[in-house]
User: What shape does this take?
Amino acid sequence: MRTLPRLVGGALVGLLTWGCAPFNGKLPAIDLGSLSVEDHPIRQAPITVFLDKPEIVDDDDERDFSPIADAFALSLRQRLDEYLCAGRKVFGACVDAPAEGAYRMALRVVVDDYRAARGGFHLLAASVFLPPLLGMAWGFPVCPGTCTWHLDLALFSPAGDQVWKRTLDPGKGWANCSSALDMARNIGRRFEEVVGELSQTAAGFDEAVARAREAESRRLAAAPARAPGRAAIIAVFTLEDRGAGLGTDVQERLSEYLASAIAASGHYQVIPRAQLKERLGLQKTETYKACYDQNCQIELGKELAAEKTLSTQVIKLGANCMVTAVIFDLRTAASEGGASQEGGCGEDELVRSMKDVVAKLTRAK
Assistant: This one.
C-alpha cells in the first residue's frame, strides 16, 4: 500500500524537476520583448564604452561558482554589450578592448551563495524511496538551485573620473539559478530599473566635458600671443614602453634625461617633473596615473598651464628599438611636430637615440 504513494510522489517530483540542468555559466541574450522598455525611456549617450571583463568574487565557502566564473564573466560582458549598445542603444558603441577616448564600465559580480541546479531523472529515482511530501520538499530546492548574488557597476570617463555607480541585485534565494534564461531575464529587469538614469548621466557628462573643452579652446585662442623670444611651456610626460621590456626605474631615468635635454635646448620651458608627478599622484585610477592617452595628457597639460605637451614612445621593432616623440600644441589642438630615431634597446643606446630625437625636434625652432 505504501509503494503506490511513493511512486506517485516520485512521479510528481520527476515531472517538476524534469529538464533542470546545472548552469554552465553561459547566458542567453537578454530578451527586450519581455521587458517594459517603454516605461524606461533613454537618451542615448553618443560615446564609446570599453566593457571591462567582469570581476567575479565567489564568497561562498564551498566555491561552487568558481568553476564557471570565467565562462560567466565572458558571457555576461557579451550580453551586456548586446543590451547596452545593439539592443537598448544606451551608448553609441561598445568595445571589449581599451580605445582612444573611450569610457570604461567596470563590473564586479559578488556571489554570496550558489548551489547549482540538479537534473530531474536521478531525483525521480531517489524520491521513490522517500515519502511523497518529503520527496517533493527535498526535490524543490535541489532542482532549481539557489543563487544569491549582486552586481556592482561603475562608469568612468576617459580621464578616469567616476561618472556613475550602482549596485544591482538580480538574484536572491532558490529558483534564481533554475536556468540560464531566468538569470538573463533577472539581469534585464534590474538593468531596466537604472538604464534611463545611466544614459542620462553619461550623455550629460559627455556634453559638459565637450562644453568645457570648447570654452578652454576659446580661452586659449583669445589669449595673447607669446612674447617674441619667450620659450613655450611644455609638459614632458613619462615615455611609454611598447614592447622594449624597460623597467620602471629605466623608464623614469630616460624620461628625466629627456626632460633635461629639452630644457637644455633653450627652446622650451619644461614643467618640473616633480610637479607633474605630484599632480598625477592626486589621481585615483591607474589608467590616469599612466597618462599615456592623448586625452589624459591634454587635460593634465592644461591644468598645469602648459602650452605644449611632449609624448614619447620606445617601440620594439625586431632586434632594435624606435624612439618616437610628438609635440602637441594645446592652443591649436593639433600636433606641432615629431621626430623618431631607430637604434639599440640598451639604456645607453636609447640615450643616444633620444639625443638625436631632441636635436630633430629643436632643429627647426
